[in-house]
Design goal:
Elements: E1 7-13, H1 20-29, E2 34-40, E3 50-51, E4 54-59, H2 70-91, E5 95-99, H3 104-111, E6 116-121, H4 128-133, H5 136-149, E7 155-158, H6 161-171, E8 177-178, H7 193-196
Parallel strand pairs: 1-2, 1-5, 2-4, 5-6, 6-7, 7-8
Antiparallel strand pairs: 3-4
Length: 200
């Protein structure tokens, strides 16, 4: 743990190991902050406690073993909220970094406790694809939460200008900051192996 630096809790309802955007965020922030990622997913096996130097707190939900039913989605969300809230309280961060609508409620609650809150909207929740992917009650609840809470967040981030404009227009908030998804590149050494092997 770094001394005399602020703590940042990054929240993700999903698999951190497969989310490049959240990974890049955590890796950048850890240069100046004490960062911990709080994550839950349907990952099977032992989830790592650290990945590329970033500490991870994994919540294994008991409800994920239940049958896949629309109501189970709501139960899973409630369990996730309860378990993760306890973990965050123990970490006692200065800043809460919420990723997508599933985590925005944490931001609202912990803001009342004097925490700074950042909300990163990876995609447009009100898009119809989400309406059909989730239980209708859960969809409406999360849409309502985003609508009510987003204007109370200290800073809002999103992936592109299109979503930023819609969020600003529909929720009547200051235009979100745009941080685009940029994949990591790997420098490849230039060689003449193709010519040397007589391929061309």
């Amino acid at each position: 743990m770094k001394k005399n630096v602020k703590k940042v809790a990054i929240l993700l309802f999903g698999d951190y190991l497969r989310d490049g955007r959240v990974q890049r965020t955590a890796e950048a922030l850890k240069e100046k902050f004490d960062v911990k990622v709080f994550v839950t997913s349907d990952y099977i096996g032992d989830y790592p406690k650290e990945f590329k130097g970033v500490a991870i707190e994994f919540s294994s939900l008991k409800s994920k073993k239940l049958l896949k039913h629309p109501l189970i989605q709501i139960i899973k969300f409630i369990e996730y909220f309860w378990v993760t809230s306890i973990q965050i309280k123990k970490f006692d961060p200065d800043i809460i970094h919420c990723n997508d609508v599933f985590t925005i409620l944490f931001g609202w609650i912990f803001k009342f406790r004097g925490k700074k809150v950042v909300y990163d909207s990876h995609e447009l929740w009100k898009d119809t694809q989400h309406k059909y992917a989730y239980n209708s009650r859960l969809f409406k609840m999360l849409y309502w939460l985003e609508k009510v809470i987003i204007g109370k967040i200290d800073a809002v981030i999103t992936v592109g200008d299109y979503i930023a404009d819609i969020l600003q227009r529909d929720y009547m908030i200051n235009r979100p900051f745009v941080i685009r998804n940029i994949t990591e590149t790997e420098k490849v050494e230039q060689t003449d192996i193709v010519r040397e092997k007589g391929i061309i």
